[in-house]
Amino acid sequence: MELVVGASNTTMRSLLGKLGGLLAQEYALMSGVRGDVQYINDELASMQAFLRDLSTAPDRHDNRLKDWMKQIRDMGYDIEDCIDDFAHRIPRDPSSDFKCLFIRTRFYELRTWWPRRNIASKIAELKVRAQQIGKRRRRYGVDNPINLNNGPLVRAVTYEIAEHQLTGHQLIVTKEPVGVTADMKKLEDWLDLDKPVEMCDKERIVLSIAGFGGVGKTTIAMALYQNARDKFDCRASVTVSQNYDQGAVLRMILKQVKPHESDPNIEGRSHSELMEELKTYLAEKRGLPLAIVTMAGIVASNPRKSIKDWKEACNSLFPELMPSLTLDGVTRILDYCYNDLPADLRTCSLYLSIFPKGSKISRKRFTRRLIAEGFVSEKQGLSDEEVAETYFNQLIKRKIIRPVEHSSNGKIKSFQVHDMVLEYIVSKSSEENFITVVGGHWLVPMPTNKIRRLSVQSSGSEHGNSTKHMNLSQVRSLTMFRSLDQLHFHSFNNGILQVLDLEGCKGLKEKHLNDMCRMLVLKYLSLRQTDISKIPSKIAKLEYLETLDLRETNVTELPKSAGQLKRIINIFGGNKSSRKGLKLPQEITKETMKALRVLSGIEIDDKSTGVAGLHQLTGLRKLAIYKLRLQKGSETLTQLGSAIEYLGSCGLQTLVLNDEGSDFINLLDTMSGAPPRYLSALELSGNLKDVPQWITKLSNLNKLTLSVTVLRTDTFVLLRDLPLLFSLTFSLSAAKQDEAIVDIIDDNKSQSGGVIYVPGEGFKSLKLLRFFAPLVPKLSFPEDAMPALERIEMRFEAFEGLFGVDTLKSLKEVHLRVNSTADDITNFIVDDLKAIKAPKIIVDHVISS
């Protein structure tokens, strides 16, 4: 086994930055301590250079080197803990205030004498440890990496960070299986896909595909599902692991056969209730066979390697002639691919072990956590968010992770890790004591060292027993899945814990929230999909908090003290599917919330006192208002219009407005200033009468969602010249369906002569077109319309027809979700449309509540 150096290298780099900041504080260090800190800083800088050499050295490290590396890593963690403890125990340097500077300085020294003395003692001990580690290396003859360069060709590679700065925009990424044509044909014959339904074998209800991990079982299953899905009116695709949550699987199926917004209580339904309603089959979902996928990823990431290099690699991977690929062969390929990763990507790969087997992982959740952990920092002119996206794209390119869902803007929304890859990563992570996994599916040894990052993946009392005898005082990151039973937050060091992710956990109580408010260096706090209903005012103590996620909870407002969170970057609240919002914070000022970049899922009414303060958030990049209820002509309405106009000129990139009757969205066209030219995503929901004319000037607009009330021919004509528009959606808010909506659609149809015509030119970049409404009128496409369009999605109760789609040269799929209340005429039109040979017509008959 090779030595893992990626995480250690990243830790050293982060640590050196913190040490530099500590040295810069004039009054923080006691006499004599500055020299100790400087010594540790210099020693660690040399160690980091050694780590960089190791990351490019061959896989020939002996046990002495492994042990020495572990000592460096553990010391680095302890130094970082000491610095973080210093940061929250020692008040800020008083030198910035020149009034009575001498008196203030002396008072500061007296007040902080004891904590500074305590920390000075710890730093002295750490200096001795650093000296001993350096001597130990020489005493036991730990070799330099340069002496190991005669080994086989297994090296890390570099890559251009700007090359994959942005996530690719894709919609349909179905892969054809490789090397399993005969198996696919046999399964298709068994399904009798070409026969009418009434002639098919009613006895055949389960098809089983067997084989060892990574051979491609789920490849065949998913490819078969993709090829055959349009033959079934009701279908679902889920991933089921050996130790799975039955309720979660059933809910996943139910959400695919029934619109999520029609059943807001789905999360609270019992297993028996879900079973009673679900009548469908399970199909596993994965990608291409693992060995082929991973090798393809490494080849794509090393375009400069010669044929000779690849021959040498193949000889090292397959030293003997084998009739077929074995499990050991797959493991060797994973070793090779892992060793080829740059150090930063190794760290990101190891971090995947946080998540349970088979879980669907949010891309944004993953990248935000990388930033909060300190694994990502600004470089080469890119922000930390852009660097995190770059790392994520590299993991996709190298086939370490695979996309599962794409957002309507074409970016990856969620991803998964192949079971064998995740098992490999968990083993590596355990080896370096990078992440400790409790419960779940993996048999990993109990940690003998200090636990730094803890992922509790089992439920009930199991994980309580597993962590009972663990020392949790050094845990910097805690992730819980399913339940909080038996776990006590008082076991953790409140001066160290920086990441707390409790998404989806049950059993969260008020006492837990009070404990969280004592975690003084917390940066990332996710309470998403928990049962909480109130945030304590003590949250203001979390002065380092950067991300607060309260989505899909019962929290309706933040305490007034939340306005004191000076470092907060992301605030998420509300529930987009039900259009429930989090009341706008009362106190918003440039001084207190100047770091805020994302304010999403909020509610604004005439009682909202913080609207005027929105002008101060000049760094805001996303503003999503899920519920807007204002009186016409009110002062708050005027303030909001002015704020949006000003923020649009400052760099606002995403704007979401759901207007419930205040007519605010119809006033947007009267904005006197320049259009919000930085917008890349815009959503206007409500009784929108006309599309604002300034939208035509948004040259960066990538994603546009409009109310179905403007579904007219002239709307398509107005929008056709937007150069980067990727997706266009006409939708009706699920939270409040206007009773007159069908009349409005009929009036729009009449204005267009009975048919909505898509113009024959324009929409050069559009790939996704969606219509979500009770009635979708006749739509007609000329032959040269929307040349890049790949997918059309519709959800409706009544449907009048779709004409010309068979002439659209890039169109691959038309996906229709037909409500079970649809009349016979609608069903007849849908059946007639299914007769088209191309594009593929997919029909789902969804169940109405």
From TrEMBL:
Q: Can you name this protein?
A: Rx N-terminal domain-containing protein
Source organism per UniProt: Triticum aestivum (Wheat)
Domain named NB-ARC: residues: 197-288
Q: Which UniProt keywords apply?
A: Coiled coil, Leucine-rich repeat, Nucleotide-binding, Plant defense, Repeat
Q: Which Gene3D superfamilies match?
A: 1.20.5.4130, P-loop containing nucleotide triphosphate hydrolases (3.40.50.300), Ribonuclease Inhibitor (3.80.10.10), Winged helix-like DNA-binding domain superfamily/Winged helix DNA-binding domain (1.10.10.10)
Where is each Disease resistance R13L4/SHOC-2-like LRR domain found?
474-822
Q: Where is the Disease resistance N-terminal domain?
A: 12-98
Q: Which GO terms describe its molecular function?
A: ADP binding
Which CDD domains has this protein been placed in? RX-CC_like
Q: Which branch of life, at top level?
A: Eukaryota
**What family is this?**
Belongs to the disease resistance NB-LRR family.
Domain Disease resistance protein winged helix residue range list? 354-423
Alphabetical GO biological process terms: defense response to bacterium; innate immune response-activating signaling pathway; plant-type hypersensitive response
Note whether Chaperone occurs among the keywords. no
